Each structure stands twice: as structure tokens, then as C-alpha cells.
Amino acid sequence: MRSPADSRRLAELGLWIALAAALQAAETLVATPVPWFRLGLGNALVLVALHRGGARDGAWVALGKVFLGGLLAGRLFGPGFLLSLVGAAAAVVVMGLALRGSPPLGFVGLSVLGATAHALAQVALASTLLLQSPALWSLAPFLVLLALATGCVTGLVAHRIAAALEARPP
Amino acid sequence: MTRRAWGPADIALVAALALAAVAALPGGGSPGAVEVLSPGGAALWPLGAGRREVAGPLGVTVVEVGPRGGRVVASPCAGQVCVRAGEVTRPGQVVACLPNRVAVRLVGGASGEGVDAVAR
């Protein structure tokens, strides 16, 4: 028999995964002015799950987002899928570790760390596996600056979601 | 347990990352040549070299090197991100077709492009 708290956690987790996957798939399909530029709103939901349920819940949402999002966008197991898997895994590991850091970071700091880890992990993977050349590393500073901007936005979104949930307890 | 949106630690973190990224931005300078990477290896093409074909796992990527830089003109990949990216005209810029494993990078001219920091 599951306790009501367990059921609530499970329902929340399902909701975050579904929302994050839909957001990620939508972002994949939308053309952007800068190639590879994504806002990464799905990461806001990973962060909400991390904040509310800890590292394990965050990992569920991150991986669920990548697999379901890849399925929805029709690019499961392609190079793009591999890049998003590695990026999402790096982001959730770094954010999960930083969750307990001292001094404690806010949502914006955590999100920025996750976005930066996401970008750098993707450059590392593309350099070593796909191009076998360090040429892509000269993109890294641009990508980190973009990650700082998108990380701030998604961090603020995550904070609003978490605050709304805490203002209305079960 | 509530967590704030941001505080002093967050501002310090963002500022530090921004400073590091700006410091690592590729230097300016004038474009010197175009480096084309493919599974067949790396080749340095002079500016104005024109159109050439590069083979990758998906097929042929057509690269055009004009007087100002290089671009991908045609690609066998599904996303076409590389074609839409347009021309690279500043040293350090890269346009890559990851599915076909081809990258086009502009390298600096006589002034050099400084340190190409690589962590392996």
C-alpha cells in the first residue's frame, strides 16, 4: 500500500517528465537564430524535481525528458539524441552535487551550473566522438555565455514553479 | 525548506563564469585560412579556394571557401543546421555538421589566433 505522500511524489514525477519531454521536443523542432541554441526550459523541471525530491527524482526527470523528448521529436538514438543524453546527464549530476553546496546556491545559480555543464559536456562529446578534433572547443566560450543567459531564465522559471507549489501545500 | 531564486553566491558564480568565458573568447585578427575537418582528416584551405566536396559517413558535404570565410553549402544530414548557420567570417568560429562529422573552422592570419586552449 502506497502512502498518500508516495502517490503524490509519483504523480508529480510523471507530470515533470511529461512536461519536460514535451518542452524539449518542441524546442528541438523550433528553428532558432543561432544554431544549436535552445532555451532548455525542460531543465527548469529537472531543477524543480531536484529541489523537491532530491538527486534521484532529478535524474528520473532528466533521463525521462531525453528519452521521451527524443521519441517525440523522432530522433531517438541519432547523434543529436546522444548529445542531448550526455548534456542532460552532465547537467543533472552537476546540479545534484551543487544542491548541497555551501554557501547554498539559489535556483539561478544551480540552473546556470547545469546549463554550463550541459554545453561543455556536449562540446567534449562532439569533439572526441564525432569530430576527433579539438576544433569545436573554440565555440565553448560562446556556448558558456549563452548558457549563462538561458540558465538565468530557466532558473527563475524553476523558482516560480517551486514557490507556487510551496504556497499551496497538499 | 525554501530556496531563494538568487543571492550573493549566485551573482558571484555567474560573474565568475562570465569573466572566464569572455577571457577565453577567441581573439580577433584577420581571417587567414579555413580548416576543414572530416573523418578523412584535417585540411587547411586558403581563402578563396572555392567549392570542394568532403566525404562523411552520410555522404558528401559541399564546403565553399570564399574570400572572407567558409560555409557549408550542401549537406546530406537531416537537420541542415550546418547549412543554415551560414558563413564563418571571424577567426575561431566553427560551423559543424555533427551527423556527417564535418567541421569548418576559420583560423587566424599572420597575427595568429593566440592560444588554442585545449583540455584533454
Provide a descriptive summary of the structure in words.
The complex is a heterodimer of chains A (170) and B (120). Chain A has 170 residues and is mainly α. Chain A is built from six helices and no strands. The longest helix of chain A is centred in the C-terminal third of the chain and has 28 residues, at 140-167. With 120 residues, chain B is α+β, with helices and mostly antiparallel strands. Chain B is 18% helix and 35% strand. Chain B has two helices and seven strands; from the N terminus they run αβββββαββ. The longest helix of chain B has 17 residues, at 8-24. Chains A and B meet through α4, α5 and α6 of A and α1, α2 and β6 of B.
Radius of gyration of chain A: 16 Å
Sheet with most strands: strand arrangement of chain B: 2-1-7-6
Mean pLDDT of chain A, as a whole number?
89
How many β strands of chain A by DSSP? 0
| Head-to-tail CA distance between termini of chain B | 40 Å
Shape of chain A: globular
Largest interface: A-B, 43 and 44 residues
How would you classify the quaternary structure?
heterodimer
Binned, the helix content of chain A reads over 70%
Total strands of chain B: the figure is 7
Rg of chain B computed from alpha carbons, rounded to a whole number of angstroms? 18 Å
Strand content of chain B: 35-45%
